[in-house]
Amino acid sequence: MDDNEIDLIAAQIRKDIGVHMKGAMNPLEARQGLSFWFDNYNRSNGPVFSIRPSGLKRHIVSLKFGTYAAPCIQHIQNRASRNDYALAYAFTEQLKRSFDVSINGSSSVHGWQVTSCFQINVTRKVSNLHGSAEISETISLIMVPLIAAIAELIGYEDEEEREEESNSIIEGGVMLSLARKRERNPRNRLLCLSIHGEQCGVCGFIPQDTYGSELASILEVHHIEPLSEIGQPRAYNPETDLIPLCPNCHRAIHKRKPALTPEELKKVMNQ
């Protein structure tokens, strides 16, 4: 895999989950692998995500922290909230459904915390160890969700999201900003579509059947329970709190205030 292909993968990662990455071949691996890291860190002071061949038909994707990553780990330990970990856990749980996942040598994918010796290994069976298409697919299926999980713990967010949140000066505004942040967060979107599939949760519309696989999905992410209606703070569960909707159903749900629930909209459509 050459530098141009690596740059294309980094660009796709940014498009998928809103994170800037750098990548390079890693000749230090026992069998030459490929590594990516956040562009504001390097391979020694932050998390490193690598893919390497194993045996005859396996890719192993690993996440571990560099030798001098103590400040990054401390940052995560100080700032990552229960909700941040909820999203990160959801990513590892989703990976466990399709692949062999090991976290710090254990098969448990929930309840982990980032420490100095933290490491995740995910194994995928492939037909072509060194084919660019297979490598890119493994990165998309496994490495991108791992990057998304750690990005959430570190606190990566778009400038637009930070500006919206800072401008929310009343409680309702803060809650609305948080709902929008969760709906627009590309990492929430990735997880939502991974869990629920590329299909509208109300009308069942499948964009790929109409537009083909070459166009980006038009599905949008909806926060099911409006935060303005929650009396007290509660744990955020991305698996049950988010649902993919087609643009028509998403607009229809928000035509009423408070917004319709997906089940209420289904009843309206079936009248």
UniProtKB/TrEMBL annotation:
The lineage of its organism: Bacteria, Pseudomonadati, Pseudomonadota, Gammaproteobacteria, Alteromonadales. This is HNH endonuclease. Residues 187-251 form the HNH nuclease domain. GO terms for molecular function: endonuclease activity; nucleic acid binding; zinc ion binding. Keywords: Endonuclease, Hydrolase, Nuclease. It comes from Pseudoalteromonas rubra. It holds the Pfam family HNH. The keyword Hydrolase applies.
